[in-house]
Amino acid sequence: QVQVVESGGGLVQPGGSLRLACAASGVSFSKIGMAWYRGNQREWVGGIMTTGEILYSDSVKGRFTISRDIAKNTVYLQMNSLKPEDTAVYYCKAAGSYWGQGTQVTVSS
Q1: Pairwise CA distance, residues 95 & 100, whole Å
Q2: Integer CA distances (angstroms), 13 to 78, 86, 99, in order
Q3: Residue 76: which of 23, 27, 16, 32 has the closest Cα?
Q4: pLDDT for position 74
Q5: Positive or negative, the Cα torsion across 39, 83, 69, 58?
Q6: pLDDT tens digits for the chain (109 residues)?
Q7: Cα 59 from Cα 104, distance rounded (Å)
Q8: Distance between CA atoms of 92 and 109, rounded to whole angstroms?
Q9: Pick from 10, 85, 95: which is nearest to 47 by CA?
Q10: Taking a C-beta distance cutoff of 8 angstroms, is the pair 4, 103 a contact?
């Protein structure tokens, strides 16, 4: 059974940083794609393709960084220079099918 769990959300001031983590179990982590989404419309933020290529949406490019620790079966989303419009529930999706429950990020002064 595949499980995906996000963590690391919280309240941060504009210009601040947060790092989200997504831990996946029940799947061969090194061989799957992992992606981050946000909001009710599940806006795509970025992801690691099965090839290992990392892509970002234009709205976060240059501010957000995705990385992974295969030994820990975990993908990270480092978010810098946060803006109020980045406020959303952030979701992780594994292998194109498995969603986590989401973690709230609020950017506000």
Answers
A1: 12
A2: 15, 11, 28
A3: 23
A4: 92
A5: positive
A6: 889 999 999 999 999 999 999 999 888 767 789 999 999 999 999 999 988 899 999 999 999 999 999 889 899 999 999 999 999 999 999 988 899 999 999 999 9
A7: 18
A8: 26
A9: 95
A10: no
3-state secondary structure at position 35? strand
> Tokens 């959300």 — which residue?
9
- Coil, strand or helix: which one is 72? helix
Q: How many C-beta atoms surround the C-beta of residue 6 within 10 A?
A: 22
Task: Return d(Cα 61, Cα 23) in angstroms, integer.
Answer: 23
Residue at 9: amino acid letter: G
Q: 41-70: per-residue pLDDT in tens? A: 999 999 999 888 999 999 999 999 999 998
